[in-house]
Every structure is written in structure tokens, then in C-alpha cells.
Amino acid sequence: MASAPAALFAYQRPDHLRKTLKALARNFGAEDTPLIVFSDASDHPDTEENVREVRRLLQMVRGFKSVRIVEREKRLGLAGNILSGVSEVLNAFGRVIVLEDDLVTHPAFLRYMNGALENYTDDSRILSVSGSMPHRLRMRIPKRYPHDVWLSRRNLSAGWGTWSEKWSTVDWLVESLETFRSDPEAQQRFNLGGPDLTPALLNAIDQGRDLWAARFSYAHFVSGRFSLLPRRSYVRHIGYDGSGMNTFWNPFHILDSHRDAMEAPVFPKHLEADTELQERFRNAFRSQGWIESWKRRRYLSQSAK
């Protein structure tokens, strides 16, 4: 099985990026993995030096099968950088593992992602695979559940992957939005992946925010497909410290850990959706609804200044 390429998206956080690269290089199979890094450009004097530092750091990256650095000449923003970069890598390789510059991975992350992409490439029910999970204090897996992976109605964007033929079906313009907006029952069904999904989608589009993940979750919903998630997370998110463009300080992510990740996960051929797991997952996002509301109010007040 050939290793899928890893596409890493960076902007202006060299300290976070250094930790991300160090952890990724320590992954099993890193030496067989092509790494493509998309470095977004600065559009403000306050970020110019950090972007230069990021690009100096990227010139020293070693430990992978190959390293290619794509330095954007103009600022694309998070969504523009990711959507164009992922499409480029998928056109060349057919599958991709996607990371951002504030994710610290378990040494078995690449092994898990490659196994998931290989084993479920022909499963039409699965649109994406994700490498993260809420901490077990937020979401407990039922003891009766026998597998290392499960089917989620919602993708998680902290370390994920997909295939070219499935990615090409996504409607990034969300052309059905107005029909969805006036359909409370459809919104309720979408929110089975988490009660924050409908507000996140509508706010992202109505406010023109530089976000893409809510649209990707919506693509899972409208196509009736799933994201494959692990029993335990392979990713620790270090970006909820106020340093990101679209991530504010969030106390729920203090719990993030990948210490319990399985080094040799098993991927069952016949995997069925589990309603109890999905309900527990949904409730994990219900608990942070108040902070999402606070974040939206803060964003609106800052935008108005």
C-alpha cells in the first residue's frame, strides 16, 4: 500500500508549526510519505515577519519521502488555501491526508489514516476519514461497541483525509442553502451531527467568514454519507489558545489528548452506523454551545469596529 501524501496548511504561527512538523516526522511511515506544504501569504504588516519565519522553517524540513513547499504569492485565507491545495494534491495523487499548522499527531496517525483511506476507498457511504475525536471525558464509547472505528454524520477537520472522486462531488457553493434555510426539519436532521452545525453553516455563509468545515459537514449531510472516526483521537489540537485566525480560546480543548490512540487499528469490512455512538457524539458538541455563541458575538463585535 503506497502512502498517501500529507498536505499541510500553514500561515503565520511558526512555534505551532514547529511542533506539528516534529510530531509528524516521528510518525510511523513518515519516511514513505510525500509532504506538500501550502504556505499562505501575508496581507498585513503585523503578520509579515511571522510568515517569513514560517517559510524559513519550512526550508529545513526533513524526514519525509519528499518535501514540496508551495508559497502563495497572495493571501488566500484558510478556506481558499485548503480548498485549492487539497484539490491540487488529489488531482495528482487521488487521495490525501490533510493537516493544519496547529495539530500534534500521535506516531500512529499516518498509519491510521493510510489504513482508513485504503480500506474504505470503495465504500460509497464514506465521504471522508477523520483522525480526531472528542476527549473521553466529553464522549465515552459504549463498552459494548466492538470496533476501533465508527461512522459519524459529521466530519472533524483536525486531521482528515478523502479521495478525489468523492471530493469532486462536494458543492462548495452550497446551492441548496435557501431551501435548507426555510426547512426546520432538514436543519434538525443536520444537527444530528451536533446542535452547532446549522448555526455554524448559516453564520459562516451569511457573514462571509473564511471557513470551510461546516460546508464539508453539510456535504456529508446532503449526500447521506459518513465520515469515519477513530475510537480514540490520533490528534492533539494546540491552536485553541487565541493564536488562530478562526479559532478562539476554548476551554473544552484543554482536554485534547492522543495518548490513548491505538497503534495498530483494525478496519472492519462491514461497518454499520451506531445510533448510540452518534447521540453521544452529538451531545459532546451540545455541551460547548454556549462558548460557540460567545465566539460568534465576539466576532461580530470585532467586525463592527
Description:
It is a single chain. With 305 residues, the chain is α/β, with parallel strands linked by helices. Helix content is 39%, strand content 15%. The chain has eleven helices and ten strands. Strand 2, helix 2 and strand 3 form a beta-alpha-beta unit.
Basic shape: globular
Order of helices and strands: EHEHEHEEHEEEHHHHHEEHH
Write down the CATH topology: Spore Coat Polysaccharide Biosynthesis Protein SpsA, Chain A
Helix segment tally: 11
Mean pLDDT: 90
What is this entry, summarized?
The protein is an alpha/beta fold and 305 residues long.
Q: How do the strands and helices of this protein lay out in sequence?
A:
Elements: E1 6-10, H1 14-25, E2 34-39, H2 45-58, E3 66-71, H3 77-93, E4 95-100, E5 103-105, H4 109-119, E6 126-130, E7 149-152, E8 160-163, H5 164-167, H6 177-181, H7 184-190, H8 197-206, H9 213-223, E9 226-230, E10 235-237, H10 275-286, H11 289-303
Parallel strand pairs: 1-2, 1-4, 2-3, 6-9
Antiparallel strand pairs: 4-8, 5-10, 6-8, 7-9
Helix pairs in contact: 8-9
